[in-house]
TrEMBL record:
Lineage: Bacteria, Bacillati, Actinomycetota, Actinomycetes, Kitasatosporales
Protein name: GNAT family N-acetyltransferase
SUPFAM superfamilies recorded: Acyl-CoA N-acyltransferases (Nat)
Gene3D superfamilies on file: 3.40.630.30
Highest rank taxon of the organism: Bacteria
Ranges where the N-acetyltransferase domain occurs: 163-302
Length: 302
């Protein structure tokens, strides 16, 4: 077997990235994603592409924030691992998968080849997630009318709410941040993401009970690919009343009022309450995502 050649691409040869099968349908899932040619890398053997990766970030990001397209040919897990190891950026790896991939032998084999390459490169599993997409034919979710929503211009109000929300959380990314730097870090990472989104700051909302107690927050957002549920969070003392649904319904309405023709969302597979709320609000599962982190940044027990 000849040696693997790793190449970063340029605008002139970016088409080389497309010279590889797409069994997991990544091209369709990324049809709204804009990739920079010089953040794409391929592994070649005898001139054939045997692995490829696309690192991605927002239009103003100086470096990628993740890898969200990664493919490996059958039997080429080590080439895929070499591709990941050789990159100048060690960031989170997202592998998007069609729904039901576990039950389809071909899809499962393709997914497991990518998982194997990631692990061989020193990446560790962080979390598996459901991906959702609301469209108008689903009908707008009913607003229960139990909470009072309003914009809140003070970031410190959101920071305090996020600290309290993440003091008891099921979210794997938040739990990882808490392990690294406590709830302050988890709250700051959420705020950084909200500000990173190109949608207006004025869309962020707090929700109060009729008695005036802060019950939760929601952040309707646009990421660079389109409208999305940026964040839904209920304060611990107000859980058990189903308010996450109220927040999700309001978030969807706000985005549609701002012109959204669809709304994306995601939650961890293990977050059963939030998954139930997405289903109730008319958000069908359209795919899944498996997130890996470089081992020195991931939970050692993963």
């Amino acid at each position: 077997m000849t040696d693997t050649v790793i190449r970063a691409l340029t605008a002139s040869d970016a088409s080389l990235f497309d010279a590889h099968p797409d069994p997991l349908g990544a091209r369709e899932s990324h049809r709204r994603t804009r990739f920079r040619p010089d953040w794409k890398r391929v592994a070649l053997r005898d001139g054939e592409v045997v692995a490829r990766g696309a690192w991605w970030g927002g239009p103003d990001d100086p470096e990628p924030v993740n890898i969200n397209w990664f493919d490996v040919a059958e039997g080429e897990e080590e080439a895929g691992a070499a591709l990941l190891r050789s990159a100048p950026w060690q960031v989170e790896l997202e592998i998007n998968l069609p729904g039901g991939w576990r039950e389809d032998p071909a899809l499962r084999a393709a997914a497991e080849a990518r998982f194997g390459a990631a692990r061989a490169a020193g990446y560790a599993l962080l979390v598996e997630r459901f991906l959702y997409r609301w469209t108008p034919e689903q009908g707008l979710p009913e607003r229960p009318g139990r909470l009072r929503f309003r914009p809140e211009p003070d970031d410190e109000v959101f920071r305090d709410a996020l600290r309290r929300i993440h003091s008891v959380t099921l979210d794997a990314h938040a739990l990882r941040a808490i392990e690294e730097g406590g709830v302050d870090l988890a709250a700051q990472q959420e705020l950084d993401f909200f500000h990173w989104c190109p949608s207006p700051r004025e869309w962020w909302q707090v929700a109060h009970t009729p008695d005036g107690d802060l019950a939760g927050i929601h952040v309707p957002a646009h990421n660079p690919s389109g409208p999305t549920v940026g964040f839904i969070g209920v304060l611990p003392e107000h859980r058990g009343h189903g308010y996450a649904y109220d927040l999700l319904a309001e978030c969807t309405h706000v985005l549609v009022e701002q012109g959204a023709q669809y709304v994306s969302g995601a939650t961890d597979r293990g977050n059963f309450p939030m998954a139930a709320n997405f289903a109730k609000a008319g958000f069908p599962v359209v795919g899944e995502r498996v997130n890996f982190h470089p081992a020195d940044q991931a939970d050692p027990a993963a």
